[in-house]
Amino acid sequence: MKNNGSLKKYLYKSLAGAGSIIICILVFFAMYRFDQVVAAYNLMKGILMPFIYGAVIAYLLTPVCNFIERHLSRFLESRMKKPEKARSIAGAAGIGLSMVFSLLVIYLLIAMVMPQVFSSIGSIVTAFPSMVNKWSAWIQNYLQDNEIVWNYVNQFIDTVSVNVESWLETKLLPNMQTIVSGVSAGLLGAIVVMKNILIGLIAAIYMMGNRRKFAAQAKKLIYSAFSVRHANAILDECRLIDRMFGGFISGKLIDSLIIGCLCFFFMSILNLPYSMLISVVVGVTNIIPFFGPYIGAIPSAILVLTVNPMQCLYFLILILLLQQFDGNFLGPKILGNSTGLSSFWVLFSILVFGGLLGFVGMIIGVPAFAVIYDLVKKCANYLLRQKKLTTDTDTYQELVSIEQDGGQLRYVQNADRTERKKEEQEETP
Q1: What is the domain extent for residue 362?
Q2: 239 and 308 part of one domain
Q3: Which tens digits make up the pLDDT trace of 152-198?
Q4: What is the crossing angle of helices 211-225 and 176-209, to 10°?
Q5: Which end of the chain is more exposed for a tag (fewer CB within 10 A), N or C?
Q6: Is the model's pTM score more than 0.70?
Q7: Dihedral through CA 168, CA 169, CA 174, CA 180, nearest 10?
Q8: Same domain, 106 and 249
């Protein structure tokens, strides 16, 4: 028996060593062949992108599908002899109605918003020459009374003209082919995105139809690869991830919709220009935590400023009041403390994930970092309990050291050390 135990121990150590060597080789290969790794990653991303779109669509529509299926199943089971057939019909109807619901919401948003947006853009284009003339006249009147400033402006205009001419001759014209190819690549990329979305919609239907089977297969794999205790912990963490992402994204969408509607309502009352266009911008950018209000408010304020500076001031006051209302009342009511992150970590997660993944990273950064934060916290608490140390964070706030005192652990705080130093000074003659 002892030989078997030592053999198992030796085998585990050998496997761990071999695994470490393999990981080191893979890391070295990835660093040495970085370009090939990036190319392979981009290739796989391009292939899997329709399924990624499909997974996102299915994840967002699953709550709607479950709601329809649950209520329809109850209705059909009371009227049909075979419960299995009733549930099957309810499942198919839930998928179909959820897809119809999503397309209907998109259509209504486009039908209500886009005409207003186009009319706002049209009015901007129409009014742009008069705006330019108005501002030009104001600048001219201002510069006529300031000869020194006028000279500086003339020098600036001359410099800009020379630079623009040089840029046209040396940069733009010789690189027209590159620019045209870049535009063509952009159009091709847009077509590819539309193709991926259409395939993603089809994939989402299959994913929602097989969601329970996929979940069962995933649980089966987890329990086959890990011990029961670790498998339970993994599933608990998966449920936490689902609650974190689902609650945050759905709550943020509702919050942003309300803010956009309130912005349109008050802008219409105040008779501010481009109310629909600006409300759409404010609502969409509000999805981004922390930075969203500023990202949407700055270009909107500039747009209102071109019409009337006083109205721009009213708009800025309105945005400030809306964000105060959202940050202190509406957001906490809808989202609650769903992430459990402090303001610093919210800012940190937005900057890091935004830098890595762009606009999408800024949206999902907070719940993603909340999951990472929770995992690190659980691992730290587990290791502390293994060492029979306290997991109370407040204990470590003023901690100087942990000392053994007759078999008991004593947490020495700053106050204890200060008191000890005073006693030593009093004892010293």
Answers
A1: 342-391
A2: yes
A3: 766 766 676 666 666 666 665 566 666 666 666 667 777 877 888 88
A4: 90
A5: C
A6: no
A7: 20
A8: no
